Backbone:
């Protein structure tokens, strides 16, 4: 599948991705597949959600079973708040508006956003409104992160080969960058890789990242360099996460930088014009968990993220339950258990969870069943492994309610589902 240094074989699918050693593969938000690296075990149900640009796109769906090869170290990709955030799949510039589509962790009701240039604020939009402004044939973004054979081409059609520097177990593997067939010298002080570039007005705008033993992360931000000489002009700090996309706004000449947790708009003088962040919260009018864009750092409501796993017909009931507890306590709910597995509170062990969060218990089974229903391939899911992340939540309250105790002790929740739900396509 054109993957570098393939060290693990995994079921490939169509919506999420995960870094495994140095191989990046796509997978669905399906529960039931679990990986163990060293002492850590990781479930595919909600494990690190790919932002799209962390991955080399697989050219085919290659495996039907999971095969885990021996690994001598504990994998370093642990849960991070940015793991839950949506990523941009389309970015379109117009004279009066800027539009984008997102892909999130759940089935978002409104995945389109439009920015009115005069107001500098994003709002949600319907597909019809988006198409009426930008047309219905807008192209999706491609996140390559320098992997694969290319071709790599800027928006203006200039071909290039990105600089790629990989450090694995102390060994550095570096390939030089070329633009339009000539070597483009970049004198970075460390093992920095290039994810994406754009060229405008004699300046090469370069998105960077570090590629190491345990995945990728932010490097030296956005770099501006002379197209003629390769000499560095300056840098812009875009945060701690890898840059996945660099886009030139043709109507303002601003540079739009997409990272895992934000959009940073940079002027040509290397000053930040504006910054936008994604977050999840409840729509107070509909009770539906939705994605939003803010101009200032805003944390997601963790229970709105949890609600993405619930069937739509339970959103209103769940939202009412959430409203019954103080907001400060509701926001203490940790999403860690839905990303990392497995740590079960033992019988008799005191729970450290606020009692108010027991409202989650009656919703766990329906969330588990709804997640299973989203598995897009034929055959049975491994419901026992799929149960683990959900069981962790029940076990945190096992000494307080009979329902929590029952669900905690039940190793395979698949036994609790109806016969019709055990066979899925």
Residues:
């Amino acid at each position: 599948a054109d993957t570098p240094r393939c060290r693990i074989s995994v079921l490939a699918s169509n919506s999420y991705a995960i870094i495994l050693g140095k191989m990046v593969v796509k997978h669905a938000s399906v529960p039931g597949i679990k990986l163990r690296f060293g002492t850590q075990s990781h479930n595919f149900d909600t494990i690190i959600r790919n932002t799209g640009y962390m991955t080399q796109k697989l050219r085919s769906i290659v495996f039907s079973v999971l095969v885990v090869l021996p690994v001598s170290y504990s994998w370093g990709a642990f849960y991070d708040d940015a793991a839950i955030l949506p990523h941009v799949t389309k970015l379109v510039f117009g004279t009066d508006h800027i539009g984008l589509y997102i892909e999130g962790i759940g089935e978002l009701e409104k995945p389109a956003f439009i920015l009115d240039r005069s107001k500098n604020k994003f709002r949600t939009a319907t597909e019809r409104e988006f198409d009426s402004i930008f047309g219905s044939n807008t192209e999706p973004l491609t996140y390559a992160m320098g992997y694969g054979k290319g071709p790599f081409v800027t928006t203006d059609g200039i071909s290039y080969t990105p600089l790629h520097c990989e450090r694995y177990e102390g060994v550095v593997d570096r390939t030089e960058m070329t633009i339009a067939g000539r070597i483009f010298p970049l004198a970075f002080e460390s093992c920095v890789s290039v994810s994406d570039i754009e060229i405008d007005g004699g300046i090469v705008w370069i998105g960077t990242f570090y590629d190491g033993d345990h995945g990728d992360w932010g490097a030296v931000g956005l770099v501006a360099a002379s197209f003629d000489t390769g000499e560095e002009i300056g840098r812009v700090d875009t945060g701690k996460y890898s840059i996945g996309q660099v886009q030139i706004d043709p109507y303002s000449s601003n540079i739009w930088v997409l990272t895992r947790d934000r959009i940073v708009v940079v002027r040509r003088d290397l000053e930040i014009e504006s910054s936008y962040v994604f977050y999840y919260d409840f729509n107070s009018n509909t009770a539906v968990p939705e994605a939003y864009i803010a101009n200032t750092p805003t944390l997601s409501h963790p229970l709105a993220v949890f609600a993405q796993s619930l069937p739509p017909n339970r959103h209103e009931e769940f939202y009412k339950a959430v409203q019954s507890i103080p907001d400060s306590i509701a926001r203490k709910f940790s999403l860690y258990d839905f990303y990392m597995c497995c740590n079960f509170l033992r019988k008799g062990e005191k729970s450290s969870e606020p009692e108010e969060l027991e409202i989650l218990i009656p919703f766990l089974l329906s969330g588990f069943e709804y997640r299973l229903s989203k598995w897009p391939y034929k055959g049975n899911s491994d419901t026992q492994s799929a149960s683990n992340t959900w069981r962790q939540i029940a076990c945190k309250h096992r000494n307080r309610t009979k329902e929590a105790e029952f669900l905690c002790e039940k190793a395979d929740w698949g036994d609790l589902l109806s016969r019709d739900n055990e066979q899925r396509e």
Q: What stands out?
A: Confidence is low (pLDDT under 50) at residues 1-77, 419-425. The CA atoms of residues 53 and 121 lie 25 Å apart. The chain is about 15% helix and 30% strand.
